[in-house]
Records
---
Amino acid sequence: MRPKLTFIFCLVFGVNPFVSASEGCPVLEGNFQPGGLLWGKTEPNARLEFNDVQVPVLEDGTFLLGLGRDAPNKLELRVNETSLCPIELQTRQYRISRVEGVPQRTVTPPEEQLVRIREERRRVRSAKAKRVKREEFLFAVKSGLAWPVTGRISGVYGSQRFYNGKPGNPHYGVDVARPTGTPVLSPGPGVITLAEPDLFYSGGTVILDHGFGLSSSFLHMSRIDVQVGEEVRTGDPIGAIGATGRATGPHLDWRMSWFNQRVDPQLLVPAMP
């Protein structure tokens, strides 16, 4: 995990931009790069807007911001519609590979599967749209997540393949390769909002809501041990590794989202043992 940085920022409309954080803009800490999470603290009744999202604020004023894979180097947080606070990010490079001669049927799903795929995507969006508001969940996440499984990292966040010259979707998670049946444990506390045994792309899939827009997804599992609505804590079993869906071998694909931004789980855990 990269070391946390602290960054003080503020630009208030019509006021000298070099003012203290107390004059309108909070102090942020976290990973200032695409895929990172940022934490801050403001007045409990403050109204925050970031990337067209109304940011939830906890009772003590704590809030969370998620940075997507393609986040620009300069972003803005609006506070109470009176302060516009710039955020500067580091540039991040991703692993890009090109594969030629791939049969087109493996790149584009067959027409008869498109209705199924659209319905499954609707169910996933609905699960991620649920908003659990348990402050203790989010505080536990802030203190650090645990690896849901340990092993060889076979895929990293942000990487992308070009098939026959056409770009595939970027990889938004971290892959850990282990044999089928290896237990998958909850990396942090939350509530299960999706538990599907056989989605077209992701196979056995679980979504865990950590609260206030932050969620984890676990893909390609051979077995699911939880149900929708179940509350889990760090280390609780949620299923087992598999190669279901469109997978070339047994592994866990762990992904995280903050609202509509895909964040990098590997930035929130210690180095792989």
---
Amino acid sequence: MAESITKVEELAYELRVSEVMTRDTKAISPQLPMRDVVELFRLERISGAPVVDGEQICGVVSMEDIIRCLLANDIDAPASKYMTPNPITVKLNDPVVEALKHFVTTSVGRLIVVDPQNHLQGIITKGDITRGYLRALQRQNEEEELRRYRARHLFEDIESDRTSLILRYNILAGDFRHGGAASSNIKRALLRLGATPQIARRVGIAVYEAEMNLVIHTTHGGIIRVEIEPHRMDIRVFDDGPGIEDVQKALTPGYSTATEQIRELGFGAGMGLTNIQRCVDEMTLESSPGNGTRLKMKINLDQDTMQEKKENLQNESAEDD
């Protein structure tokens, strides 16, 4: 059975970098003496700053770099000597989960945030993400209280031998600007239909990862088709792209065929299919070189309904105590 998805995990896919980042960033020049960098950090109470030469982002200086400088008794050296070059960047409109993937797979403490033209917009740290989560959770609290319906109520007023709702989305290859739009629309539709928050979280994450695979790895894009019935959801994603040479290897956490250009954009960490498996009850991946890829996912709605009912009873019991 698929794992439960927490509110915090859901927010990682829902929040954008621009919503949690620090915008008022103090940039320094490569020629600035480390003595002045130390003073800047002290006065501004910061622990890191991007190094910018004109409009070119060339590095980042952190407290660790300052410590190395002090230990070397090299306080008058330029920032370029101790900065970390080629810093990892994320885009303003990237979901926070892409920043988190960088934090998990690297040892960096901050990422540089840029606009579509790669101009400096700010920085994002784990602390920024935590504060962003807290603000978002406060906003969602009242909204979720109004959505405490059961998945079995989706089609309660409709009488037929078999009732289903079909949602269909065309995804374009390389369209990072709209990447994640389909998953957000599907999740919003489910909540409006009365689905439980847990169902919406699981579907939102699974579809997002599948959607980004279409954006990143296909030639022309593909189609996402979601069929919702009273007791289950079937999600199918298919494309006519290059296909997958080794399906079993593609299912290995961290394995990715993303190009260096895609990785520079902040995508292609190789966790997409792993995250999908966590969120769905059944997953089938069919692909071969030159024949495209077909991904089938199934979510049993009754299990989520029973789980939410159990959680509500536990909460009520705790309140009575």
---
Amino acid sequence: MSKILLQTTIGRNPDDWDISRFSLLAAELRAAGHDVVARDRVAGEDPVLSRVDELGFDQLWLMAVDVGDGLTPADAAAIARFRCNGGGVLTARDHQDLGCCLNQLGSLGLVNEFHDASVDPATMCDDVDTPTISWPNYHSGANGDYQQVLVPERVHELLRTDRTASGRIEWFPAHPHEGLVSTAGVPEAAVLAQGRSATTGRVFNLAVVIDGERGSDGMPMGRAVAESTFHHFADYNWDIDCGAPSFVTERPGSQVREDPSRLVVFKDYVRNVAAWLHSRVSVAV
């Protein structure tokens, strides 16, 4: 099994999305047999993230919960070396510019698209209930509810499960304002799963994968997954009784509480991702 660094891009803050808000994810990865180091970043040059390529980790699950200052150049350079050495990376951001430190990560920055001030928000905003948040802000549902997963014609192995009649994972945790991930500019990127806005009906990407990318030396880089929101993995979205930071004002839903079986199926996705990122042999998507 893998040694996984589960890391946020902010310092410890109980009233923010610090690592304490991802305890259920850490527990799920550990239950799958992985060695998980879960931590918040340290101000300045982070002593772990800036040396992630030297410390024996196989995977980095990076919860990008900052407002732009979540990675130093040394952190970003170490993550690039980590992928060049075959390490697997998952990134998860959120609406508008939340987590835009990911822009420093080469192809992983390209697949994470953030706010563009030149675009008229009136033509792009899907979350109309929180006017302080601009696009991208795809409204897939309330925290504590589910959203249906749309898939390409060929179902990726990450979405396979034996717990449903269809043989695939059909539901993800929902969130009122998800970010934007795409395949633009990255030939090795592919759409993994899509959702549909509950307000406008727009289809948007829930996650994309990067597989088969090569470094400047021509050697295969580690696989990567980019999630449209970290709320797919937050404690609050798996169990609303865990609570949220005080700045979260949207009324939560109750679907996960009323039907936890769909969350059990979603946890197969978490396990699939951890197994897939561990593999250093690229296969076609």
